[in-house]
């Protein structure tokens, strides 16, 4: 297995509502996004949404959320793939997460996004989540966006996201 | 007036990064997503609070030697 950094994006001053990786090479087996983010939303944490191909909004999410003292499971017509800390959490502290996308370049199969994240708080209570989101169709994925799912809030400055391409096979060779 | 929302878009092929405003469709979807998230978050927090209440009640009854309801027992038995 070989993992190659494709691109890294960092949010500048003023923040941004959404980060998009477009024209993703179709030469890898899977994709992986690693992010470090914080939202300007006035709460403990906010959701990070996933959007493939610009406007193909996913419509089914299943999740397992923990808060440090309890665990709940969820399901619904959502696209939340991670949780990120909001302004109620310890300042200057960013949450980390990953989003795995298997077989992204293969048309005709349902795409599933797999996310795990922690809205880091540097305290005993912090929200964590393991989530899966199902894409709305079976199209190959050529762009991926992650967005703050809350109204009027942004991913703040110094939030980053890195896109990696993963090749199956020993030494990165594709196994036929 | 609604705050403007922007996308930081990185083209993996050219290496260029541009900042652009949401399209009308993206604004509309963002509003739907915000409503959906607010609803999902309210449900999650309510479920969390209900579970905490049940667990506290179950623990107190267990200590006092009182019978648990089925819901309270579910919080202790997997």
Rg calculated over all Cα atoms of chain B: 24 Å
Distance between the termini of chain B: 51 Å
The averaged pLDDT of chain B comes out at: 88
Low-confidence stretches of chain B: none
Hey, roughly how much beta strand do the residues of chain B contain? 5-15%
Short description:
The complex is a heterodimer of chains A (176) and B (78). With 176 residues, chain A is mostly beta strands.
Describe the structure.
Chain A is mostly beta strands and 176 residues long. Chain A has no helices and twelve strands. Chain A has strands at residues 2-10, 18-22, 30-37, 45-52, 60-66, 71-76, 80-85, 95-101, 112-119, 127-134, 144-148, 160-167. An eight-stranded antiparallel beta sheet of chain A has the order 1-12-3-8-9-10-5-6, with no helix packed on it. A four-stranded antiparallel beta sheet of chain A has the order 2-11-4-7, with no helix packed on it. In chain A, β5 and β6 (71-76) form a beta hairpin. Chain A starts with a strand and ends in a 9-residue tail after the last strand. With 78 residues, chain B is an alpha+beta fold. In chain B, 59% of the residues lie in helices and 14% in strands. Chain B is built from two helices and two strands, in the order ββαα. Chain B has helices spanning 24-64, 70-74; strands at 6-11, 17-21. Chain B is elongated and about 70 Å long. The termini of chain B are far apart. The chains are: A mainly beta (176), B alpha+beta (78). Chain A binds chain B through residues 6-7, 9, 11, 16-25, 43, 46-47, 49, 55, 57, 65, 67, 69-70, 72, 74, 76-80, 145, 147, 149-152, 154, 163, and chain B through 3, 5-15, 17, 19, 22, 25-26, 29-31, 33-38, 40-41, 43-44, 47-48, 51-52, 55.
């Amino acid at each position: 297995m070989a993992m190659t950094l494709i691109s890294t994006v960092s949010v500048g001053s003023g923040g941004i509502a959404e980060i998009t990786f477009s024209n993703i090479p179709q030469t890898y087996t899977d994709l992986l996004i690693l992010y470090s983010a914080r939202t300007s939303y006035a709460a403990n944490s906010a959701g990070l949404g996933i959007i493939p191909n610009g406007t193909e909004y996913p419509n089914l999410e299943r999740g397992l959320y923990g808060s440090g003292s309890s665990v709940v499971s969820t399901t619904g017509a959502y696209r939340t793939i991670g949780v990120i800390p909001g302004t109620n959490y310890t300042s200057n502290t960013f949450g980390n997460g990953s989003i795995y996308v298997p077989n992204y370049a293969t048309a005709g199969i349902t795409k599933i996004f797999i996310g795990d994240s922690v809205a880091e708080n540097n305290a005993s209570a912090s929200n964590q989540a393991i989530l899966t989101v199902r894409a709305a169709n079976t199209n190959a994925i050529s762009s991926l966006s992650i967005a703050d799912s809350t109204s009027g809030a942004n991913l703040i400055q110094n939030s980053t996201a890195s896109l990696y391409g993963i090749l199956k096979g020993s030494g990165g060779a594709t196994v036929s | 007036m609604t705050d403007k929302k922007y996308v930081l878009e990185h083209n993996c092929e050219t290496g260029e990064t541009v900042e652009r405003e949401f399209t009308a469709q993206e604004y509309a979807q963002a509003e739907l997503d915000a409503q959906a998230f607010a609803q999902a978050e309210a449900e999650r927090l309510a479920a969390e609070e209900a579970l905490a209440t049940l667990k506290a009640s179950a623990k107190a009854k267990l200590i006092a030697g009182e019978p648990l309801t089925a819901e309270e027992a579910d919080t202790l038995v997997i």
